[in-house]
Design goal:
Layout: E1 2-6, E2 11-15, H1 24-32, E3 37-43, H2 51-58, E4 67-72, H3 79-97, E5 104-107, H4 121-136, H5 138-170, H6 177-186, H7 188-199, H8 209-216, H9 229-256, H10 298-307, E6 315-316, H11 317-324, H12 331-341, E7 348-349, H13 351-365, H14 381-390
Parallel strand pairs: 2-3, 3-4, 4-5
Antiparallel strand pairs: 1-2, 6-7
Helix pairs in contact: 1-2, 5-9, 10-13, 12-13
Region (Disordered): 371-391
GO biological process, one term: endosomal transport
Protein name: EH domain-containing protein 2
Amino acid sequence: MAMHYINRYAILIFSCGGAAGYDFPSVLQWFAERVDRIILLFDAHKLEISDEFSEAIRALKGNEDKIRVVLNKADMVETQQLMRVYGALMWSLGKVFNTPEVLRVYIGSFWSEPLMIPNNRRLFELEEQDLFQDIQNLPRNSALRKLNDLVKRARLVRVHAYIISYLKKEMPSVFRKGNKKKQLINELPVIYAKIQLEHHISPGDFPDCAKMQEQLMIHDFTKFHSLKLNMIDILDEMLTVDIAKLMPLLRQEDLDTTDNVVQGGAFDGTHNGPFIEGSMDGILEGIEDDEWVVTKDKPKYDEIFFNLAPTDGKLTGTKAKNWMITTKLPNSVLGKIWKLSDVDRDGMLDDEEFALASHLIEVKLDGHGLPPELPTHLIPPSKRRQKGSAE
């Protein structure tokens, strides 16, 4: 079992693995109450929900609105098999969560390796963008999440008040207190049902019954307070009136703070999302040479370039894209390569820019990372001259 906590935007991510060696579900429950987003990771080619993983997921009860699911490495299975895997995952999650809400599942290949089966490339691209946008908008939605947490806690307080007052009312004043206490604790599920019907409370508002029974063992029911109806009325007014007044203010705040999104690092200027590239060793090749490092392979790149039938010495974005996707690299990587290669930003590639793109593709296929900006030694010679004359 693995877990990663990003403190600034409070993202909790975990996937199934080995034994943690401590009470991992309790740790998860503590984090789940404090984070904005919980992401469950599954691999499409080895889908399983072990008993340990199921127990950890059950620790997230009450936080279903924060949960997102990622079906990763979906490029390793054919489309028909992927449909079966998706259906099996939803069925398994439905048994674990036991809620009417359908969890949002993002399907894709969230790494920078070549796609083994590229048939669903467009689907993976759209799913990655949706997940990326969901994470980016976490700061914007944080106020709404805090309000939802307040509502959840207020409803829990109300239920606790009804439970405690019921237990106190049922206790005898003098004799057989111990026996009555044990009886009430054993009958707690029935008491839950009575309170639910009498006060029209949703079952989801009640605390975990087994845990409540365990905690009640150490308390003296005769010292519990009686129900204060005036305080319940104040709480109900807060839930029905005051919260309703806050909702339009939060929506307006979201509209006014359009720049309140996750920024920095991989979130600046690309659609790569929070997915890390490999080492940069391949990019450093030729940094000390006088000759452009791409020159030695340019003849073979030129052959491909002219076979693609350029117009006025340039390939359109469509023609270049159709060739680039044959490398089976994810769209997030190819988009970054395009951004680095289209040096003059005209939306097309000349022979040097195409050669540069081909070189960067080979660098990526060799397992190396890509830089955020094009290094000086990789700038095509003709573009260097243009830059120098412009200056």
